[in-house]
Amino acid sequence: MNYASRKARRYAEALFSLAVDAECVDATVAEVARVADLFAALPDLSAVLAHRRIPVDRKLALLASATAGEDGAAGLSELTSHFLRLLVENRRVELLPEIRHALQDKLDQRQGVVRATVTTAVPLLKAEREMIEAKLGSLTGAQRVELEAKVSKPILGGVILHFGGQVVDASVRTYLQTMRETLRRVRVSEFDHEGFLPLDTDKIRAAAR
Amino acid sequence: MARKDEISAVLRRELEGYSKEIRMVGVGTVMEVGDGICRVYGLEDAMAGELVEFPSTRDELGNPVRGLVFNLEEDNVGVVLLGSDREIEEGSEVRTTGEIFQVPVGRALLGRVVSPLGVPRDGKGPLVESEVAGYQLVEQKAPGVVEREPVTEPLKTGIKAIDTMIPIGRGQRELIIGDRQTGKTAIAIDTIVNQRYTHQTDKPVYCIYVAIGQRQGTLKQVVADLEQHGALEYTIVVDATAATSPPLQYIAPYSGCAMGEYFRNNGMHALIIFDDLSKHAVAYRAMALLLRRPPGREAYPGDVFNLHSRLLERAAKMRSDYIVVAAEAADDVTEGVDGRVYQGPPGKHEAEAKAQEIGGRVKRISGGGSLTALPIIETQANDISAYIPTNVISITDGQIFLEQSLFNKGIRPAINVGLSVSRVGSAAQTKAVKSVARTLKLDMARYNELAAFAQFASDLDKATQATLNRGQHLVELLKQPQYGPLPEPDEVFVIYAGTSGLIDDLPLGQIGAFEVGLRSFMAERYPDLVREINATAQLGDDSMAKMKAAVGEFKAQFLAAQAAGQADAAG
Fold first, then answer.
1. Is the pLDDT of residue A194 over 60?
2. Considering the domain A6-109, what is its CATH architecture?
3. Residue closest to B347 by CA, chosen among B366, B329, B367, B320
4. Torsion sign over Cα B158, B163, B165, B168
5. Is B34 helix (H, G, I), strand (E, B) or coil?
6. Which residues of A touch B (CB under 8 A)?
7. What pLDDT score does B13 carry?
8. Nearest CA to B512 among B529, B526, B527, B498?
9. CB–CB contacts below 8 A, A to B
10. Which residues are within 8 A (CB) of A73 and not within 5 positions of it... i.e. 6 or more apart?
C-alpha cells in the first residue's frame, strides 16, 4: 500500500474517470507512471516545475519539450498532457508520485488485482509461490494476485505476507519473540525455597495472558 | 536437580499451551514522527483508542514500543506514542493489536509505585500476579444514575478545618485549589495518612495518588512520607512525573481511576488524588496541538472540559443492594426470604419494614462501594477564574481554596473559609461533629467580615470585639501541623472548646498548648466519651453535658498549671 493524500486522490479520481470514459485506462495509467518515473529521474525538472517564482507559461513550455515524443517514441496522449498542464497550473506537480499510486490502486481495484509482498528467509520455489498466490486469491477474492517476493535472512524462516493494509506474520523470528515474551512472564519467584512450584499452572497461564 | 526439572516442567507446560495460531493484523507505515506523536498511513481497520505496536522497536523491557490511536483521519491516523520515539522513523511498520488500553487492577498494586501503564517503577520487582484481580479498560464510562446512591458516609481528612466546615463524603469530588506553595499536596497527603484508622474498621479506604507533571524529587518525597507514616501499604502511587511523555501524563489519571474503580465496583472504598489537573490539561494541550487539533481558549482544545468531567464523573458512591433474610440465617445466604433484591436507600427502607414484619433482618449483598476524588488545581496569582480552574470548580462538588496570604500569616492549613464549600459533604458529616461545629462556619464568616477592623479593636463596641476575639481564637484553634491528622473524638472535643467560647479568654499564644493538653486529658480521663464517639458517631444529651463539664475541668486545670508556671518563672 502506498500513501496518497486526499488531494492526490482527488486528481487521480478525476483523471481515472475521464480515462474510463475514453476507454484508455491502461494506457493512461502507464503514461502517468512513465512521466512519474521521468520526473523521479530528473529531480531538477520537477524542482523547476514546482518552483513558485518561475512563470507558468515557461513551465508549460518546459513540460511540453520534456514530454514530447523523441527517438521515434510516441508523445503523450492528449488526456495525459492536459492533465500534466493542469497540475502545473494548479501548482500540484509535487503530487505526481502520489497520484500515480492512487491511479494504480484504482486500476487494481477495477481489474480485481491484489498486490502482495511475500518475505521469506530463502527464495521461494515456484510451487510455493503458486500455492501462496492461489491461497491469497481465494482469501481476498481477487481475479489476479501480483506477488512480489523478497528474501530477508533475519526472519530466520516462515513467511510474512503483506497485502492491502494487512499482514500475516508467520515468521520464525516473530514466533520466537512471542515465545520469549510468554516465557519471560512466568515468574520464577513463584517457586518455593526448595525449587518446587506449587503447580498452579492455570494461574501462571492467566498471568501470561 | 529438582529445581531445574520443575522449572523446565513449568516452561514446557507453558509452551504446550502456547498457541501457534497466526493472526492477520492491520499494518500501516509511519509518515512522520516527532514530539511523541506519529502519523501513519494504512492502519485502515484501526479503532479509536486502540493500541498499536511498532515491531521494529524495543523498549527497556524488550517489548515493542506501543502507541495509542488518537486521530482517525481520512488519509492518515494520528498515533500518540507510549514509549520513546527514538527508533521509529519514516517508513517504520505499525501493526494493530486489537486491544484497547488496559491496566492491571487489584490489591497487587497496593504499596507500589507504578507507571500509567501499570508497570512497577519502584524497583520492588513485578506485581504479585496472584493478587492482580484482572485488567481494566483505562477509559470507562461513569456509572449511571441507577447504579449510584447519594453520598452518606464521611471521608475523614483528619484536618479540623475541613472535617468541621467543609466535610467530604465518600463518593464526593472535592477540589483542592490554590497557588503554588500553599499546601495543596499536604492536605491530600494528610488525608491519605488519616485513612490508616479506617483499616481497623470494616470499611477501609484504599488510596491512589496520581502524580501528573510533578518533579520526580517531589514524588519521591511524597512516597517517603507515606511510607514513614505507614500509609504506603494501602496506597497506589501512579507516577507520571514531568519527565513522562505528554500522552502518558494524559492517560495517568484515567489509569489511576481504573485502579480505584476496582475497589469501588467491589463494594470497597477508595480515595483518588489527582495531583494536579492543571498539568494534566497542559499535557493534553501539548498533545492536541501536536496532533493539530484546533486550539480554543488559552490554546486548550475544545474538549478540555469533557477531559476532566468524564474523569471526575467516575468518582461515585455506588448503590447498595439488600435482601431480607431470616434472623438466624447464616452469613453466606445470598437469596432473600421473599426472593427480592431491594435496591438503594429506598430499598433499604422497604427491606427494613419487611424485616420487621417477618422478624428477619436486612443484609447487604452487593454494591455500596465508593470512589472519592480529590483533584488538585494550581492557580496563578489566586486567579480562580482562569479557564481550567473554573471548569474543574464547576465539575466538582465543592472546593477547598488555599491562599498564599493566609499561609504566610502562619495560618496552616491556609484554607480560605469564605470561598471553600462542600456541596454534598454535610449529608455525610457525623452527628457528633455536626453538634459541635454548627456555629463554627458562621462565627468564622462574621469574623472575616470584621477582620479588617481588628486593628481598631479598642475603639469598637463590645459585640464586635467579642466576635473578633472569638474569630481570632478559632483561627488559632484550627491551625494544624502537617502529618498530624486528628481522630474524630479529638476533633469534637477541640472544636467544642472553641465554639462554646470556653477558650475565648485564653491568650492566643496558649491555644496550641491548650489543644494538645485537652486531647491527652480527654483520652486519659474520659475514654468512655472517646469510645462513644468512635462507636456511634454521635453524642447523647448526657454525654454532651459530660463533655462540657470535662472541657471546663481541663480549662481550670490548665489555667492553674499556667499560673503555677508563671509563679515559678517569677520566683
1. no
2. Orthogonal Bundle (1.10)
3. B320
4. positive
5. strand
6. 1, 3-6, 9, 162, 165-170, 174-175, 178-184, 186-191, 194-197, 199, 201, 203-208
7. 72
8. B498
9. 92
10. none
Which cell goes with B362? 436486612
Nearest-CA residue of chain B relative to A203? B130
| CA B336 – CA B342 distance, rounded (Å) | 9
Query: Does the annotation count B423 as an active-site position?
Result: yes
Report chain B residues whose CB lies below 8 A from the CB of A176.
none
Say how far residue B165 (Cα) sits from the centre of its chain: 18
Contact (CB<8Å) B75/A208: no
Average pLDDT estimate for A76-100: 90
Closest C-alpha among B21, B376, B394, B460 to residue B177: B376
**What pLDDT does residue B228 have?**
96
Mutate to test the interface with B, among A13, A169, A185, A209 (most CBs of B within 10 A): A169
Which residue in B has a C-alpha nearest to residue A193's C-alpha?
B3
Question: Would you give the DSSP letter of residue B46?
Answer: P
Q: Which helix (H) or strand (E) holds B50?
A: strand B50-54
Q: Which residues contact B327 (CB under 8 A, 6 or more apart)?
A: B359, B360, B361
Cβ separation of B125 and A189 shorter than 8 Å?
A: yes
Instruction: Verify whether the Cβ–Cβ distance B10 to A203 is below 8 Å.
Output: no
What are the backbone angles phi and psi of residue B174, rounded to the nearest 5°?
A: -120, 120
What rounded mean pLDDT belongs to chain B?
91
| Banded model confidence at residue B4, pLDDT cuts 50, 70, 90 | low
Question: What one-character DSSP code corresponds to residue A23?
Answer: T
pTM, entire model? 0.86
B371 bridge partner residues: B270
| Least confident segment among A46-50, B280-284, B299-303, B377-381 | A46-50
Among partner residues B27, B125, B129, which is closest to A162 by beta-carbon distance?
B27
Q: What is the CA radius of gyration of chain B?
A: 28
Tell me which residue in B7, B55, B130 faces A188 most closely, judged by beta carbons: B7
What is the ipTM score, two decimals? 0.72
Q: Where are the alpha helices (DSSP H) in B325-478?
A: 344-358, 387-395, 404-408, 431-437, 440-450, 462-478
Q: Which chain A residue has its CA at the smallest distance from B55's CA? A: A174
Nearest CA in chain B to A171: B22
**Interface with chain B: mutation pick from A6, A188, A204, highest number of B CBs within 10 Å:** A204
pLDDT computed for residue B31 by the predictor: 92
- Of residues A14 and A64, more confidently modeled: A14
Beta bridge partners of A115: A146
**pLDDT band, very low/low/confident/very high, at A2 (cuts 50, 70, 90):** confident
Distance of CA B417 to the CA centre of its chain: 21
Q: How far, in Å, CA of B287 to CA of B254, rounded?
A: 16
- Taking only the tens place, the pLDDT of each residue in B418-429 is 899 999 888 889
Residues 6+ away with beta carbon under 8 Å from B91: B29, B30
Q: Tell me the pLDDT band of B164, cut-offs 50, 70 and 90.
A: very high
What integer pLDDT is reported at residue A45 of this predicted model? 87
pLDDT band at A207, cuts 50/70/90?
Answer: low
Cα gap B215→B342, rounded to integer Å: 49
- Give yes or no for residue A73 having a pLDDT over 60: no
Residue A182 one-letter amino acid: T
The answer to whether B126 faces chain A, any CB pair under 8 Å, is yes
Q: What is the DSSP letter of B124?
A: S
Enumerate the residues of chain B whose CB falls inside 8 A of the CB of residue A190: 129
Q: Where are the domains of chain A?
A: 6-109, 112-209
Catalytic residue among B297, B423, B446, B519: B423
pLDDT band per the 50, 70, 90 thresholds, residue A195:
very low
pLDDT (tens digit per residue) in B320-360:
999 998 888 887 888 888 888 999 899 999 999 999 998 88
Q: Is the pLDDT of residue A198 over 70?
A: no
